Amino acid sequence: MTTTIHGYTYDQDLAPSPVTSEDLDLLKATLLWTEDDTAALRKAGEILEGQVEQILDVWYGYVGSHPHLVKSFNGEDGQPSGAYLDAVRARFGQWIRDLCGREWDSKWLAYQHEIARRHVNTLGQTDKVGSAETHIPLRYMIAFIFPITATIRDFLAANGDSATELDTMHAAWFKAVTLSVVLWCQPYNPDQW
Question: What is the pTM of this model?
C-alpha cells in the first residue's frame, strides 16, 4: 500500500518510534484487544473505504463548527488555511485506511510517532503554514476520541450487518482510535508517558 499524499511519509524511512513493540503489546492488552478485534477492524475498513470522503465531511464539519478546534488550521492571517485543511484531510483519510488495514508493526509505530510529533510544537510545518498555533492542546487530542468514535457508527451500519456485528466493529474502532490517541500523546510528556 503506497500513496503520494503530500506530507504522508509512511513509505519513507522514519526514525523508530520511542514506543516499542512490547509497549504496543501492553497497550493492546490494556485495551482488551483481541484477534476478533483485528478481524472486526479489517471488516470495518472494507466498509469505510468507499465512505472516507463522507466521513471526513462529517469530521471537518464538526471541527469547523468549533472555533477553538478550527484555529489549529489558521494561517499567518489568522484565518483557516484551505490548503492546510486539504492537505491534512488527505492524510486523515489515509489514517482511516492505515488504522484499519495496516499491520501494527514497527513501521506503523514510526508513522504514528511522526503524526504525534506533528501535533506538538511543529503544527503546520509539514505544509509550511505559518500558524500562530504551535500545537494541538492535549485536552482536545483526548476529547476528540469521542466524536471520532461516535460519528463512525452510522458509516459502519451502511453494510447492513447484524446489530452484534455492528457493535463488534464499533468496539474495535473505539479501541483502535483510543490506541492512536495514546500513541499521539507520547511527545506531550515523553518522560511520563
Answer: 0.91
Look up the domain containing 49 and give its range: 21-188
Q: Could you report the per-residue pLDDT of 59-70, keeping only the tens digit for each?
A: 999 998 999 888
User: Cell numbers 461516535 correspond to what residue?
Assistant: 150
In a domain, 181, yes or no: yes
Q: Count structural domains, the chain.
A: 1
Q: What is the pLDDT of residues 46-87, one digit of tens each?
A: 999 999 999 999 999 999 899 988 888 777 777 877 787 888
Residues constituting the chain:
193
3-state DSSP assignment of residue 73: helix
Within-domain flag for 15: no
Distance of CA 40 to the CA centre of its chain: 18
Residue 164: inside a domain, yes or no? yes
Cα separation, 41 vs 62, in Å, equals 24
- 162: domain CATH number is 1.10.490.10
Residues of the chain with pLDDT under 50: 124
Opening angle at CA 108, ends 104 and 111, nearest 5: 155
Would 193 be classed as within a structural domain?
no
- For residue 169, give the 3-state DSSP assignment: helix
Report d(CA 114, CA 127) in Å as an integer. 14
Please provide the DSSP assignment of 150-163 as one string. Answer: HTTHHHHGGG---H
